Records
---
Amino acid sequence: MGSNKGRGRFIFCCLAPAAILFVIFMIYPTIEVFRMSMYKWGGYTANKTFVGLQNFQTLFKSDKFYQSFQNTILLIIIVTIFTFAFALVFAAILTREKIKGQNFFRIIFYIPNILSVVVISAIFSAIYDPNQGLMNSFLNLFRGPAGAEDPILWLGSQKLVIYSIVIAMIWQAIGYYMVMYMASMANVPESLYESAGLEGAGRVKQFFSITLPLIWTNIRTTLTFFIISTINMSFLFVKAMTNGGPDGASHVFLSYMYQEAYTNSSYGYGMAIGAVVFIFSFALAGVLNAVTKREEIEF
Amino acid sequence: MRRKNKGAIRETSKFAKILIYIPLVLLSVIIIVPVFWVFMASIKENSEFYRNPWALPEGIYLQNFADAWESANMASYMLNSVVVTVIAIFLLIIIALPASYVLARFKFKSSKFWNVLFMAGLFINVNYIVVPIFLMLTDADRFLNKTVGHTVFLNNLFVLAVVYAATALPFTIYLLSGYFKTLAKDYEEAAYVDGAGYFRTMVQIIIPMAKPSIVTVILFNFLAFWNEYIISMTLLTKPELKTLPVGLMNLMAAQRSAVQYGRMYAGLVIVMLPTLILYMCVQKKLTQGMTVGGLKG
């Protein structure tokens, strides 16, 4: 049917617009990240000087970079563990138990996922407000008069700020992963639970010996998501909630990169951070993928 | 004896059932209360904010919304957001649909290459490349300024929409071509036998079948574009061009110095209401669609 020429022209016309946009706005900038990481460039002048790996040397000597590194790792670990555990348990409850209003709970839990990170940050900034926030006024019920005299500075204390961000991030993420786990749990055949029930295995045992192993593939995928998305989401949260403050204590990888590139106008150095994070996130995802490898169970 | 035993089991399971509701209700409360609180705060007068934060509003003070809408420019930010989101979704669909179709159904010399490249794009997050995109557009503007005398690329809502569409391509193509791959070859063969060309077959036969997937794509990207703020903040620096989330960030900053709480909460409601309404209408579609795509975020 049709001439070969027509087929070729059709393929070209369909693919070209997407390919052009994709290459210009995604592939080329990605290559630029790596290329520019080897230049010293202020941005406002056209003067770029090739400095080789000097940016990386500065980077690995910078305390600020290690601070952001530490924060990112902390976020990845804590956010992943809590979100993962909560999402799994709630998904199991909603799929395995016969519950009134199951749909209602699913709808509610997913709400944070549709809100802009700016909105969530604004809500949590208000909740964390030292004097008029919900958090302190709730805790003051237990702390008594001490609470009013010495309010907890959720976002103003260098020690607390990262944990305040953790809470907001977990709040945002539970519903998303829950829905994902629910979908794969729904595929586990009911007969397995029935026979396990006849053999006397309780709910908890069923969860660990049937549900978990059977959705393991899905869990592995989401673990990779956790790493990549925590690195990205933490940037969005930090940028909107604290902008790295107080005194740089809450910077994460990408917010530090953004600040170096814009506020300090050292684009080359900023891109060196970007390149390191890029490689780091893939390496971590790869390691995790290898560690969690199990034989797939067919069902 | 036997009957007794059965009764005991039923008893414990009833107790367990109540126990199960506790975490469910607790999490619901933790999620609803902050959102509800913002709605309440948005109709409070400024003086009320110095009292107990748990108190319900004394009246319905809608002046906050008027202030946010006009004095804080939320009205024009809203318009900007609508313009950018609509253009970006339109571009994304008309560009991604044919590309996904071709990538899923046609074998040609470089088809493997493009499939792999778009797949790789799934792992590139815009947050990494926002700086190079900004610099690229700055360079282009500098060049235009020298040759033509004015700039086009930065501070342009249409360009922002193009960038949104471009960065959403990998995921959209992944999702749509995943659907196209499941279709039987017979559809096209029948159309070709009837004398329809490639283009007509695609537009009249294949694309109508993909409607549910297209709706999913639109929903996800509506939320993504409407809520996005890093690229928008970077590429639009003129105050009158800001999109809603960026405008909201300004309102948050202003609130810190000028103590206009009511106005900020009203702004918050204005930003999240459209997404909440949309969600309530299509929540089933959204959570189902997510499991089809299974990847994003």
Note: The longest helix of chain A spans residues 63-96.
---
Amino acid sequence: MTDQNQRITEAAAIEQAKQGYEAAFEVLYHLHKRRVYSLCLRMVSNPAQAEDLAQEAFLQLFRKISTFRGESAFSTWLHRMTVNVVLMQLRKKGLPVVSLEETLEADDEAPRKEFGTKDLKLTGSIDRLQLQRAIDKLPPGYRKVFVLHDVEGFEHNEIAEIVGCSIGNSKSQLHKARLKLRDYLKFMRAEKAKTG
Amino acid sequence: MTCSDVERVLPELLDGAPDGAFAADFETHVRSCPACADLVSDLKLIASEARQLAGTEEPAPRVWVRIAAELRAEGLIHDQDLEPESAPARPILVPASSRRRRWSAWWLAPVAAALLAAGSYVVSHSPAPQVAKQQAAPVPATSPAVDTSAASSPSAPLQSSPEPAKKSGKPRDPAWGTTVASAVEPGPSAEDQQFLSAVSTLAPSMRVTYENELQAVNADIRETQAYVNRNPGDEDARQHLMDAYQQKALLYQIALDRIQ
């Protein structure tokens, strides 16, 4: 029932936003702000930049809202637009977004398995803050694919289209990202055990 | 299939559906190899936990302020009221028109200030659970003292079985992973209930929105507080906790601004 009410609310807000009502824009913003901002933050790991990117994503959406015909979900449209905004801004500013191919060449080695040789398993629980920190440590190329796939739910064919790589590359980068995260998480756990 | 083969085919197998024979060999090997079984389990766990991170971060209120200003400057929005029958649920409160309504929200300002002050104190004094309980008492809905399940929010870490309690001898160091994902959400505090009552009185259509916002920020505070209790030396976590208190204070402040 809540989802249905929300959909009705969102549909009404979209129509009102097309007519220029500020309250309607605000409703749409509050409905989607977390998703948009979280995506930006995961991609750039910088709250100030993430705010700027989220702002730009919403502005682009609102400028084009009159063209939204409802063929797809509004959230999908916004989601896609946000990813495009992030990638475009990163390329424009020359921020360290390593291409997937460069990432392959620079970091194409099997993840070290120094930690947890005897205790390989993460034992069924991962602390959310530690996972966030581990994601922040990922090389940009790995982080981009991991965030898009595992956090945001894009499929590999979509990621390939968005970032301009092959589906095979996308899968390979994702796998390496997960392996790296596994190592980081075990390292954090080992460090924590040392400091007790 | 060998362990090397498993590592080679994992990118395809973990998320997709390969042909039947391939998958069968993979499953057979994983069942018989503890190392590969652990690897597969860990990678699946990371993927599933990552999904919990979607949409968990809250932007500062200034983001909307800037967006609105830009839209106004571009002439894309105007300030007329929406048609009542077609008005969606508004996250803003309709300004009260009567004095009788206006005074009823005066308490929001000191509560917002108290939230910020409590958050600052908790963060700066590296709380132990007993200290945190005492100090957090004036903070509505976020005190670990009233929250018997430290991570009762839906976004708490999943846990298949708790690890053994740490033998640190420190009374303030709860066992790792004792959070229970399925615990019932504690109810709102007295202050939160009063806040929601005010919202219900002044703008009934916004109650659900504010209630959801409060639940989200309270869950964030609870989780982070639990983490800080376990890791009192973690500066980032304490800053995160402070940010969460600030978010809650801002929520009250936004409501106050709208009412007055």
Note: The two ends of chain B are 70 Å apart (CA to CA).
---
Amino acid sequence: MILLKLLHIDDNKQILEPFEFYFDMNDNVDYTSCDDPVEGLKLIKEGKFDSVLLDLAMPKMSGYEIIDRLQQCGDIEKQKIIVFSASNQGTDEIEELKSKGVHSFIAKTTPINEILTHVNNSIGVMNVTTY
Amino acid sequence: MSQHIKKDSKKNQNLNIILTYTITPIIILSGITVVSVDSNLWGIQGIDHFYLEMFSVVLGSTVAFYAIVRGYTLKDKFSLFIGLGFFVSAIIDLLHGVFSTINLGDTVFEEYFIPQTWVAGRILMGLVMAIAIIKFGNTEKSKPKSLKREVIFYTTFLSVLAGTITVFSLSQPLPFITIDFLISRPYEITAAMLFITAAIFFYKRKLHQIQDSFYKGVLLVLVIDVFVNLIISYSSNVFDTAFTVAHVLKNVSYFVFIATLSFSTIYQYKIKEKSLQELKQSKKVLDEASIIDMTDTHGKITFVNDKFVEISKYSREELIGQDHRILKSGHHSTEFYRDMWGKITFGKIWRGEIKNKAKDGSYYWVKTTIIPMIDQNNKITGYTTVRTDITEQKEQQEALAKIDTKKDEFVSMISHELKTPLSPIISWSGMLQEGVLGDMTEKQKYGVSKIQENSNELLDLIHDILDVHKLELGKMNFKLSSFNIKELLTGIMEDYKIKYKTKCSFFLEAEDIVINTDKLRIVQVIRNFVNNALDFLPEVNPKITLSAKSQNEYIVISVKDNGYGIPLENQKNLFKKFYQVDTSATREHGGTGLGLSICSGIVEGLNGQIGVYSEENKGSEFLIRIPKNKTIELIN
């Protein structure tokens, strides 16, 4: 079985907690949670992950900034950045983020098993968006 | 009713005109005719004939002068032609009068020359009147651009006509045949017939309905002229009663013409005065209400009204000679001004809204209309600009836009904040449900399933609120893609079958068609229809049918059930926001009443229509009709 390395960046621990529980019991995914976006950016840059679930609205450093920084240093395509947000992005915003190298979008209110399917698909398939 | 009254009063008016200008003169003139038959009643001398003719020449020339002036000022071919006709006719009268006087006493000459040249003048006059009425009687069409060509043409035509008639009448001696005792000069009847023809056409062209007294004069002259010729046709000798009466009546007809032309001039003057007054009034109103300026072709200001001075805060002296760049606010792009100049320099009117900067640095908005002034040679001589101050309106618009933005931000923030805690609720309950966190009793599982159900409902509600908000602001974006409608409906149906297989039977009647529209929004609409249908199913044999069929350039997608149905009086409100049919089933199933209004908004956004067929206790069918290819629809 291929081990999927997944990083999850969200400043809300309440969001991260169920994922930690879920992936703790799932041997197929190597799950790392991070509630500090600055730390998260460092982790992404180290390039150890296949996919990243990235929240957008984070006061310390927003998901948009992380995306911009990754784009600037050319590291964005090294892993699949999946925007994982509670906000609804408009068509223009989705297109803009995709042009910057974001892989796909998934709504925060999606059940965990569907999120896992989406992340698994992201490894092989481009342009997967689940709402 | 009012139309009847109008028709009746018009009829009465026509009758009055016929009575005053035709019937009454005919009666009077008939009386004169009867008297004139007695040839010994009133005879004149040859010299008297000369005076009468000279009188005719003067009166005829006056008519000509008046009518030509009228033709010129009103650009009226009718008057112009009659005027020139009278002028040529006056020349014949002069010839007739002078030559008959030179040869006064030569009875043979008198008996030959006088009737010959008289009838030449009468026939010419008859032709002039008939041609004028038949050819130029249509007042709408007879406005020429330039009169110069018309004058040359008419003068040539009339001179040739007059010459031909005179030469013909002199070279062809007209015999004094006596048809019977009464008619001694039958060729006079030809001239009378011309005047009768003219009078018939006068009525046919409805010229009697024209207010202007000039036309009444023409009618009166025609009637008198008919009798002039009828009376003289009785004349068996020159200078007898019929001869004299005819000559006097000819002068009377000329006099009538002069009188009506004078009245007409007063009438025209009054009309002009009135329109000038109205123009003055509207100019005053415009001046009070609008900001007006005039510029030359280069845009240099040549005139500004008080309002312009007031709003721009520049003095009149500071503005005259400047171009509008003095007021430029920097708000508009170069393209904006280029478009404006592109239009007005081609003689077209430009309308738009401009933000200007006053002398004190404050800004003001004006709704602007720039009208190019075009002269007779189609050349632009300058521009007149009329503006209204819309600053207040613009400020309100800006304030409203700000409120909209704030509202938008607020709705986004609320939805984000509501969804964030829902995420762990859904995640945790999902894990509990799946047994990831250990086994649960049936009761615990039921409890968790209720948490999930209600979480999903809350999530749907948040999405509905967002959709309503987007539709209200007109910000709902559509993502177009091509897909097979049969495959889509099959997928949706399979999902429902898994969840509701024990509750309801599902059927599909779809044509295999690829359409280009917003797939996710179509799914949203169909799901909404199906979810509604599921809430109102009958207890026995419940079924839901999904269908899609082609209808020219459109596709009709429907969801049909055999449920309770919707009362007719409630159907028209179904697609309104927050509307719910008040039944026990609604109360049981809850809902916000937003779903169908959102569906309606989506379908409208996809350039389609939404509708419902429903009968109580038989079922409902909700359907949408959308273009198969939204892209083409949009381009069209």
Note: The two ends of chain B are 46 Å apart (CA to CA).
